[in-house]
Amino acid sequence: MSVELIAYGCFFLTVALTYAIMCLGLNLQWGQTGLFNVGIAGFVAIGAYVSAILTTPDTAGRLGGFGLPMAVGWLGGALAAALVSYLVGRLTIRLRADYLAIATFGIAAAVQLCALNLEPITGGPFGIGFIPRPFAAQAGNPLLFSLFNLALLITVVLLLYFALERLVRSPWGRVLRAIREDETAALALGKSATRFRLQAFAIGGGIMGLAGAAQAHFIGFIAPENYLPMLTFQVWAMLIVGGSGNNRGAILGAVLVWGIWAVSAALIAAVFDPGQQARAASLQIALIGVAICAVLLLRPQGILGEMRTVSRHLGTLAKRTQPAEKRPE
Amino acid sequence: MNPQVLVDGLIAGAMYGLGAIGVTLTYSILRFANFAHSELLTFGAYAALALSSALGVLSAGLLAPIGPFSFGWSLPLAAIAAMALTGLLALAVDAVLFGRLRVRRSSIIVMVMASFGAALTLRSLLEFVFTSKPAYFTRELQIALPLGGGMRATPDQLLALAVAVLLVVAVHLLLTRTAIGRSMRAVSENQALAGVVGVDVRKVIRVVWLLGAALACVAGIMAGLLVQLRPYMGFDLLLPLFAAAILGGIGSVPGAMLAGLIVGLAEAGTVQLIGAEWRTAVAFVILVLVLLLRPQGLLGRPQA
Amino acid sequence: MSTVAPPPALATQALVAGYERDLPIVRGVDFQVAAGELVVILGPNGAGKSTLVKAIAGLVPIHSGHAFLAGADITRSPVQEKVRHGLAFVPQTENIFATLSIQENLQLAADILPRRVQAERIAEVCDLFPDLAARRSARAGNLSGGQRQMLAVARALIVKPSVLILDEPSAGLSPKIVGEVFARLKDINAAGITIVLVEQNVKAALAIAHRAVILVEGELRHEGPAATLAEDPIVAQLYLGAAPAGQEEGR
User: Fold this and answer.
1) Cα(C109)–Cα(B70) distance, rounded to whole angstroms?
2) What is the ipTM for the molecules in this complex?
């Protein structure tokens, strides 16, 4: 086994795990709470840009960089994305369910536009380079460097996973599911149901921001074209394939779909002429669309399905509320 | 401000308004935001392109420009067939996807998500078939005619404006003066009661898909004629169309047209005053303002 | 037997219905209404009265059993077909199209009739409801509660139904308006239309009905002529027996 292969494996897994973080954020929003976010790329971009501005060395002609420690950057990125999510949610959550989808769709477009046009802040079309990379001291040794990076991402994902699992099992998490599953429960909770949803949406957005920050630091530079709607579609495919409502499924889906994506991209590169590659890539995307529809129609629970322990909670809850829930006589 | 802004804004706005009518109709009766509406637009435009080229091959005379316009008879003929094809596509997608979810009483958001998946599939397939290279209905160059007051417009642009106005009036009359229009408004307000009164709700849904798709097709052809055809042309219009439909008030046809014109004018004004690079932000800003200040829209009724 | 009796205007046979398959609310109801009758369905809250009539009208799934309209099996006919067979239903709430005008509400109902009789039928119904006729272009959403109820009844009458079913027409109305609505129902019945009424307002309903049936826990427990039932102690017993002591009647 060559060193390059192991290094490549680490690289692949590290990237996949940054997607896993986005997936965990989306799972909190959609899987646990039923909030449809079509602007994932926007929230990821906010996290990436804020962290990059906070941590890069001072650059002429651009805001910052402030040269702050990486941890500050990651935290700042997450908080900024959470704040924007909160504002979007605040605006739309009390309205029709699908207005949130339209608004998040809009915010992603707006963020993309800002990244492109606000050159004094974001570096414009060229983006931001020289983003400090974790374990830069080890950069001379590719194997060690990639192993350390992978270890860091694994740690972050595990920490998030356990934190989210706790959250889901907490009374807070149970209320979230109750609101999602049961219209009557949501109505009975009234205003506070909106508050719970808003909290979940903001935390989920924050997690996406964290993913954006982690990815930016791992790759070392960012540009607006990293955050096209395509990213949103990919993360959705990951969650749906893995199983929404299930944090392990979210992680598994991310690794699996990223793997399929990488392999199929390599396949396309090998099989098609360079001229036809872009065209063949569109079939890749069509497959994501078909997968989303097929899963909704055939297996709404995804590969792993919703977690048993929590489902049981839900079952008892649903049964208890059922007779009262019947439509008015 | 340059008075040309007014013309540019009105022409773009007419296109938005036409697209937004389709969105607002399907939205109010099917009760979910259909993210695949934009792909009906793109599909319609490409279908017209393919048919029009085919007609041109059959008879070159059909390609000769009609009067002052840039296109020959092949385009209007193709447009009619493309409207039918787009309608069939919408019915097909409803049969395999939305209809099944409706029968299961899926939540709004599951429908929205399904539309998202359908949009992704359709758009990518169109990109695969027609490639991402821009295409054009015609290579004829047109000279903008002076309209007075320093304003200019090409005959194609004026035609687009006229077609939009005509279609808005036609759809409005259909909704307010005919039995099927009454049924559509009834289903939009209360589906169960409409059934009790004798309205065949499934038939109304089919008619709405056909109508919405045909309107999307016309809007797509218009966008293709005035700008160009690209697989992402509909996707890029999605935000302005949703913004216009919500600003106008979901379910209101005159509202959608009015709001489309507002979005078009606001974009033209932004290009003039701030810069072309911010044009696409206008729809988002309008959307946020409506949701903040008047979620039911200009001419809409309050929504639960 | 020498002659065959005409089939009842409306009948159900072992009808089981409910929103969900494993949770029937109506549990095996046999129920008959003769042509020309005015029958009221009574019963405590949650007895399944509303679900029974909604199932007959086609708004709630029927799990088993049958429903007949003048002898014809209408169990499986979709909701929009039933009105064409002569069964009109007036739901309890949201029973008019608030965004349509009064005229449009009536015209919508008339749309299923042959074109040449539509205007005539609307005019006939408007003669019965002069208050509505005077404001035909007004938006129905601007009407008062009593006027809405009148409009809902008027709209149901457009198709000349053989059977008219009303789900709690008195709900939310003041006693005076209830009196007016019920008087109108009595007139309509006198004109030959069979009426089935679900009611919480026992007194007002029994005053105009020929016959009453009492539904408890999804089953038909008792029936009798309205005049004697008003005095019958079994009525109070059935009501109280089903509801825990202290629970208020109505909602």
Assistant:
1) 48
2) 0.89
CA dist., res. C100 & res. C119, Å (int): 18
Q: Where are the domains of chain C?
A: 10-92+162-242
State the virtual CA torsion across B62, B68, B71, B73 in degrees, nearest 10: -30
Rounded average pLDDT over C215-244? 78
Burial tier of B53 (Cβ tally within 10 Å: 0-12, 13-18, 19+): middle
Q: Go through the domains of chain B in sequence order and give each one's CATH number.
A: 4-293 (1.10.3470)
CB contact under 8 A, C23 and A329: no
Neighbours of chain A (3+ CB pairs under 8 A): B, C
Alpha-carbon gap: B159 to the closest alpha carbon of chain A (Å): 31
DSSP codes joined into one string, C28-52: EEEEEE-TT-EEEEE--TTSSHHHH
Q: What are the chain A neighbours of C51 within 8 Å (beta carbons)?
A: 329
Residues B153/B145, Cβ–Cβ less than 8 Å: yes
Cβ-Cβ contacts under 8 Å, C110 against chain B: none
**DSSP conformational letter for C209:** -
**Spatial separation of the C-alpha atoms in residues A39 and A109, rounded to whole Å:** 8
Whether the pLDDT of residue C49 is over 60: the answer is yes
Chain B stretch 145-184, residues whose beta carbon is closer than 8 A to a beta carbon of chain C: 179, 182-183
A196-247 pLDDT tens trace: 889 999 999 999 999 999 999 998 899 999 998 889 988 988 888 888 788 9
Helix axes B253-273, B4-30, angle to 10 degrees: 140
Read out DSSP for chain B?
A: --THHHHHHHHHHHHHHHHHHHHHHHHHHH-S--TTHHHHHHHHHHHHHHHHHHHHHH-GGGGSPPTTSSS-THHHHHHHHHHHHHHHHHHHHIIIIIHHHHHTT--HHHHHHHHHHHHHHHHHHHHHHH-SS-B-S-----PPEEEETTEEE-HHHHHHHHHHHHHHHHHHHHHHHSHHHHHHHHHHH-HHHHHHHT--HHHHHHHHHHHHHHHHHHHHHHHHHHT-B-TTHHHHHHHHHHHHHHHH-TT-HHHHHHHHHHHHHHHHHHHHHT-GGGTTHHHHHHHHHHHHH-TT-SSPPPP-
* Domain limits, chain A: 3-325
Comparing alpha-carbon positions, the chain C residue that sits nearest to A325 is C19
Tokens of A236: 């959705």
| Cα–Cα distance, A87 to A94 (Å, whole number) | 12
One-letter amino acid identity for C29?
V
Amino acid at residue number B237: L
Query: What rounded mean pLDDT belongs to chain B?
Result: 91
Which numeric CATH code is attached to C10-92+162-242? 3.40.50.300
In angstroms, the CA C192 to CA A242 distance is 63
**Hey, how many other C-beta atoms are within 10 angstroms of the C-beta on B32?**
24
Question: Does domain A3-325 bear CATH number 1.10.3470?
Answer: yes
The CA distance from A35 to A200, in Å, is 9
